[in-house]
Structure to design on (830 residues):
C-alpha cells in the first residue's frame, strides 16, 4: 500500500466500501438518513397497523388470501388491491382501497409454518408429497385445523415429520418466506425526507397451549434481524421466546433490537395475565424484569375482540361491554357452553395486578402501554371501516364467490383498530422509541387524536393555552410515563387530556366525541381498586337510528380538561389512563344487514344465512373509542432511594391517612420511594432543536 | 338382474351421489364417497404425524363415513324392495337404470356444500371432487 497519507486513506476507504457492499442487509449498521421534512420536536400522532397477515400465514392462505407482504404494504400506502374470492381466471371479485393511507405498518405473519407451507406449495421439495401437504393443497381449511393444532400443544409442540431430521427441511425452506418479509419491509420503507411511510420487519409467535391464546407480535427496530424468526415450535413457552430472541437478535446481531406485543388476552382463558407462567411456575423477580423489558405494549383491541375490560370480570364499568367475545379461548368458539373470560384475560385487571406484583417482585411485569391493530388475514392493513368490513379471515369466515349473500365475517368479530404512536417523525427510529416509552394509544378504528399528560401542577386553564403540548411535557410526563416524585406530601396529581374527533374524509366524516373518561386503578389495603371518572362531556347527546344508521346532531368536535384526582393518596400505587368515546354509530353488521334489506321485526326479510343480523347478543350500535397508555404513580425501581421532599406535609387534620403517608414519605419509608429514574423522567421533555414547521403536524 | 345386484348398484350410486349431512368442526352436506376419501387422507396424516386433533378429526370422519355408507345401504335395500314389489319384472331393469341416471343427473346440480370446498358455496359433484 502506498505510503502517501492521502492515498493510504483513499485505499482504506475503498476497502471499507467494498466490505460494506458485500455485507448482507440483515447485518447493516443503524442507518443514516436525511431528517424528515415534517419533523416536530413536540411529537405528532402517527396512525398505523402492527398486526397484519398475508398469504405467508397458514390461516390466511387456507382461506384464499393471495396478497403477499409487498401487496400489504402497497395497500397500507394507499393503493388498491384485489382480494378473495377469485373467479376461475384468477381475477379478484372484491377490491379495497384505504380512504387515507397509513403512516406505518408491520406485516406479522405467523412464523410457525413458514417452511412447512413452502414445502407444501413447491413441487420437488422433500415432503411435497406427504399426506399433510396433500391435505393442505386439496382441503386447505381442514389443513388449517389440523396443522394449527401443532402449536396448541404448548411445551409439547413438535415439527411435522415431513420436515426431516432435526426439522432441517422446514428450517431451510423457511428462509425464503422470511427473506420475502424482510425485503418487502425494506423496499416499502420511505427513506426519503418525505418520510411518508414506515414499515417494520416483524412476525407473530403463535404459542397457544390448549388453545389458550398467548400470541405475541415481535417487531424489530430496524434492518438488523435474526436469520430466521423464533417460532412457537422453536421456543414453546413465552419466556423461552424472549431468551431465544435475546440470543439470536440482541447478542448475535449487533444493532438488532426488538420488542414483543401480546394480543387477544380475551382468548387466553385467563392465562395471559395470570401471576404464573404458562408452565405453572410462579413469577420470579428475574421473570418480572425480563417481561417488563421485552413487552412494553399490549394490543388492546383488534378483529377478534376487545381486551380492555369486561363488565362483571373484575369491574362494574358499564362501558366494558365493547366488542366482547362470548367465549374465552379459540376452542370455546366451537363449544356450545363456552366459559366467559375471567379477570386475568383483560388488560385493565393486569394493570391493577401489576401494581401488586411490583410490591412483591420489585418490578411491574404488566407496565403496559396500549396499541390496537386489525389482525387482518387478508393482507389489508388499516382496513377498519365499519361501513365496508370485508371480514378479516383468520378464525373468521372464508369468502365465497357464489351462493346467497351472507355476512362477510363471524358476527362477533369486528374490523379491528389502529395503533397510534406519538413520535417526532415518521421513521423507524422515532416510532420504535415511541413504542419503547409507551407514548402510544389504541383506537377501535377512528383516527381520534388524544394527548394525555400527568404532572403535579398543570394550570386549570391549560386547555386554552396555545402551547398545550409544550406545557404538558414541561410540567410532567406523557401517556406511558411514570409521574415524577410529588413536590410535597399534600400534592395531588393533575392530568391534562385533550381529544379531537376523527375528521374522516369528505364522503365519510368521523363521528363527534361524546366524553373523555379517566380510568384509575390503585391498591388499597393490599387489594386492587378501580374507578372511572367522566372528566369531559359533550354538551349535547347524539343518537343513531339503527334502521338507517343516520346520526342526530350532538357530540363535540373536541374535548379538553385538566383534571385533578380528588381521591389521591400518596401511599397508594396507581395508574391512570384516558378513554375517549365517540357518539354512537352503527356496528358493521348493521350497515351490512340494512343494505341487505333485513328488518329484524319482519321475519320474512331475514334469510337463514343472515340470521346473525338479528342476534340479540351482539350490539347493533357501538361507541368507537380511543384508549391511551396509562400514566403510573409510585412505580418503584428496585433499590432506588427516595429524594427528600421539598417541603413538609401541608395536609390538614381532615386527612389523617394522608398525614400518616406524608410522615412516612418524609422519613424516607422504603415503600414510598421513587427512583431517580422517575425523577429524571420528569425532565425528559423533548428538546426543541428546530423551529416548528407544522409540515406534518395534522389535526391540531 | 338379481335383487342383490340391483341393491349393490343402487347402493354404490347412493354412496357416490346422495348428499348426507356431516359435522367435523363445521357442518356440510356431501356424498359418502367424499367422506371416505377424506377419511383416508386424515388417517394417512394421523399415521405419519400423530397428534390429538388428527385423531379426533379422522375419528369423526371415519365414524360419519361409515354411518352414511350404512344409511345408503339401508336406502338401497328399501328402494330395491319397493322396486321388486311394485314394479313389473320387465320394467325393473329400466327402473334401476332410471334411478341411477336420475341420481347422477341430480348430482350435476349444486346440491352439495362444505366449508372445505369453495368456501362453503353450493357445488355439484364434479366441483366437489375437482
Amino acid at each position: 500500500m502506498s505510503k502517501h497519507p492521502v492515498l493510504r486513506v483513499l485505499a482504506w476507504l475503498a476497502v471499507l466500501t467494498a466490505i460494506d457492499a458485500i455485507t448482507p442487509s440483515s447485518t447493516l449498521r443503524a442507518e443514516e438518513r436525511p431528517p424528515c421534512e415534517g419533523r416536530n420536536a413536540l411529537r405528532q400522532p402517527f396512525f398505523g397497523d402492527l398486526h397484519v397477515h398475508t398469504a405467508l400465514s397458514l390461516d390466511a392462505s387456507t382461506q384464499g388470501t393471495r396478497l403477499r407482504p409487498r401487496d400489504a404494504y402497497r395497500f397500507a400506502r394507499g393503493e388498491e388491491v384485489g382480494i378473495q374470492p377469485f373467479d376461475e381466471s384468477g381475477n379478484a371479485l372484491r377490491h379495497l382501497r384505504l380512504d387515507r393511507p397509513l403512516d406505518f405498518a408491520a406485516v406479522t405473519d405467523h412464523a410457525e409454518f413458514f417452511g412447512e407451507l413452502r414445502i407444501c406449495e413447491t413441487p420437488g421439495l422433500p415432503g411435497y408429497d406427504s399426506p399433510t401437504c396433500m391435505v393442505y393443497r386439496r382441503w386447505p381449511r381442514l389443513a388449517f385445523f389440523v396443522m394449527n393444532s401443532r402449536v396448541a400443544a404448548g411445551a409439547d409442540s413438535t415439527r411435522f415429520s415431513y420436515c426431516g431430521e432435526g426439522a432441517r427441511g422446514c428450517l431451510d425452506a423457511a428462509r425464503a418466506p422470511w427473506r420475502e418479509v424482510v425485503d418487502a419491509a425494506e423496499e416499502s420503507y420511505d427513506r426519503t425526507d418525505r418520510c411518508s411511510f414506515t414499515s417494520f420487519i416483524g412476525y407473530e409467535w403463535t404459542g397457544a397451549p390448549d388453545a389458550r391464546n398467548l400470541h405475541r407480535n415481535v417487531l424489530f427496530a430496524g434492518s438488523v434481524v435474526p436469520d430466521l424468526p423464533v417460532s412457537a415450535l422453536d421456543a414453546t413457552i413465552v419466556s423461552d421466546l424472549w431468551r431465544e430472541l435475546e440470543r439470536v437478535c440482541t447478542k448475535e446481531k449487533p444493532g438488532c433490537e426488538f420488542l414483543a406485543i401480546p394480543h387477544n388476552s380475551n382468548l387466553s382463558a385467563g392465562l395471559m395475565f395470570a401471576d404464573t407462567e404458562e408452565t405453572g411456575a410462579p413469577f420470579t423477580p428475574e421473570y418480572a424484569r425480563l417481561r417488563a423489558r421485552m413487552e412494553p405494549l399490549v394490543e388492546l383491541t383488534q378483529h377478534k375482540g376487545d381486551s380492555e375490560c369486561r363488565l362483571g370480570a373484575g369491574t362494574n364499568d358499564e362501558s366494558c361491554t365493547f366488542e366482547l367475545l362470548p367465549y374465552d379461548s379459540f376452542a370455546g368458539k366451537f363449544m356450545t357452553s363456552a366459559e366467559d373470560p375471567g379477570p386475568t384475560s383483560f388488560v385493565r385487571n393486569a394493570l391493577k395486578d401489576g401494581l401488586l406484583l411490583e410490591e412483591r417482585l420489585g418490578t411491574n411485569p404488566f407496565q403496559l402501554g396500549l396499541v390496537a391493530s386489525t389482525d387482518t388475514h387478508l393482507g389489508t392493513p388499516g382496513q377498519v371501516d365499519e361501513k365496508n368490513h370485508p371480514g378479516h379471515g383468520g378464525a373468521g369466515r372464508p369468502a365465497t364467490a357464489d351462493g346467497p349473500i351472507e355476512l362477510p365475517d363471524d358476527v362477533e368479530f369486528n374490523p379491528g383498530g389502529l395503533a397510534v404512536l406519538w413520535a417526532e417523525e415518521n421513521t423507524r427510529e422515532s416510532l420504535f422509541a415511541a413504542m419503547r416509552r409507551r407514548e402510544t394509544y389504541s383506537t377501535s378504528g377512528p383516527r381520534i387524536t388524544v394527548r394525555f399528560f400527568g404532572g403535579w401542577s398543570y394550570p386549570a386553564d391549560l386547555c386554552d393555552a396555545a402551547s398545550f403540548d409544550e406545557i404538558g411535557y414541561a410540567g410532567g410526563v406523557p401517556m406511558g410515563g411514570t409521574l415524577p416524585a410529588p413536590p410535597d406530601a399534600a400534592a395531588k396529581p393533575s392530568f391534562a387530556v385533550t381529544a379531537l374527533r376523527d375528521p374522516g374524509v369528505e364522503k365519510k366524516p368521523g363521528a363527534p366525541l361524546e366524553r373523555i373518561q379517566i380510568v384509575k386503578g390503585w391498591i388499597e389495603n393490599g387489594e386492587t381498586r378501580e374507578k372511572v371518572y367522566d372528566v369531559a362531556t359533550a354538551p349535547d347527546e347524539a343518537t343513531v337510528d339503527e334502521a338507517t344508521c343516520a346520526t342526530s346532531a350532538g357530540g363535540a368536535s373536541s374535548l379538553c380538561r385538566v383534571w385533578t384526582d380528588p381521591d389521591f393518596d400518596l401511599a397508594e400505587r396507581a395508574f391512570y389512563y384516558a378513554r375517549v368515546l365517540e357518539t354512537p354509530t352503527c356496528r358493521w353488521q348493521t350497515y351490512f344487514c340494512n343494505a341487505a334489506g333485513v328488518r329484524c321485526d319482519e321475519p320474512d326479510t331475514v334469510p337463514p344465512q343472515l340470521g346473525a343480523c338479528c342476534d340479540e347478543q351482539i350490539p347493533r350500535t357501538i361507541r368507537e373509542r380511543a384508549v391511551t397508555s396509562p400514566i403510573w404513580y409510585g412505580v418503584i425501581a428496585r433499590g432506588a432511594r427516595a429524594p427528600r421532599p421539598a417541603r413538609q406535609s401541608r395536609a390538614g387534620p381532615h386527612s389523617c391517612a394522608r398525614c400518616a403517608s406524608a410522615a412516612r414519605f418524609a422519613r424516607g419509608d422504603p415503600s414510598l420511594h421513587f427512583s431517580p429514574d422517575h425523577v429524571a423522567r420528569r425532565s425528559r421533555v423533548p428538546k426543541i432543536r428546530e423551529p416548528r414547521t407544522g409540515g406534518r403536524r395534522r389535526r391540531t | 338382474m338379481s335383487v342383490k345386484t340391483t341393491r349393490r348398484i343402487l347402493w354404490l350410486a347412493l354412496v357416490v351421489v346422495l348428499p348426507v349431512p356431516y359435522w367435523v368442526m363445521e357442518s356440510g352436506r356431501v356424498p359418502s364417497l367424499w367422506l371416505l376419501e377424506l377419511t383416508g387422507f386424515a388417517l394417512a396424516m394421523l399415521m405419519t404425524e400423530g397428534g390429538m386433533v388428527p385423531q379426533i378429526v379422522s375419528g369423526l370422519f371415519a365414524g360419519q363415513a361409515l354411518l352414511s355408507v350404512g344409511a345408503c345401504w339401508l336406502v338401497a335395500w328399501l328402494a330395491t324392495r319397493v322396486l321388486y314389489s311394485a314394479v313389473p319384472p320387465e320394467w325393473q331393469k329400466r327402473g334401476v337404470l332410471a334411478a341411477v341416471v336420475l341420481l347422477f343427473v341430480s348430482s350435476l346440480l349444486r346440491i352439495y356444500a362444505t366449508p372445505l370446498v369453495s368456501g362453503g358455496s353450493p357445488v355439484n359433484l364434479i366441483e366437489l371432487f375437482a
Notes: The longest strand of chain B covers residues 20-24. The beta strands of chain B are 20-24, 26-30.
